[in-house]
């Protein structure tokens, strides 16, 4: 079984949800992750707050970020165990992130390192 990272992309990171919207989304996300965990396929993950972010570019140029030059932001990720990328994609399809127009979930296989 392989591990896959599901990366949550928000089309416009400058939009701010209301506290009520955040509470609903967090409950939906917890339920969705709970369903994956119930199958023993959840490996971990976390949200990525928009505050206290920096981007380091070539030449060690440091900028406030990640909002400087991009419209899309990464809001978080989870890592799942799956037999195939297709199974990982099925997990991604259930993500509450997809309720936001323009949002997406990128699914990538995690490369094995070492003696695996």
- Any guess at the CATH architecture? 2-Layer Sandwich
Q: Characterize the biggest β-sheet.
A: 4 strands, antiparallel
- Give the CATH class: Alpha Beta
Q: What is the mean predicted local confidence, pLDDT? A: 86
Read across the widest sheet, the strand sequence of neighbours is 2-5-1-6
- The total domain count is 1
- Helix content class: 25-40%
Rg: 16 Å
Q: How would you characterize the overall build of this protein?
A:
The chain contains two helices and six strands. With 116 residues, it is of the alpha+beta class. The chain has a single domain, classed as 2-Layer Sandwich (Alpha-Beta Plaits), CATH 3.30.70.1060. A hairpin with a 3-residue loop joins strand 3 and strand 4 (61-64).
Compose a concise summary of this entry:
With 116 residues, this protein is an alpha+beta fold. Helix content is 25%, strand content 34%.
Task: List the defining traits of the structure above.
globular; 116 residues; alpha+beta; 6 strands; 4-stranded antiparallel β-sheet; 25% helix; Alpha-Beta Plaits; single chain; two-stranded antiparallel ribbon
């Amino acid at each position: 079984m392989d591990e896959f990272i599901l990366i949550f992309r928000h089309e416009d990171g400058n939009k701010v949800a209301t506290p009520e919207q955040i509470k609903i989304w967090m409950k939906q996300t917890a339920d969705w992750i709970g369903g994956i965990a119930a199958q023993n396929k959840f490996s971990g993950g976390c949200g990525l707050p928009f505050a206290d972010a920096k981007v380091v570019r070539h030449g060690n140029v440091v900028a406030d970020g990640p909002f400087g030059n991009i419209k899309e932001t990464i809001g978080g990720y989870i890592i799942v165990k799956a037999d195939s990328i297709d199974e990982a994609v099925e997990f991604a399809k259930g993500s509450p992130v997809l309720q936001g127009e323009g949002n997406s979930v990128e699914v990538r296989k995690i490369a094995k390192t070492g003696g695996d």
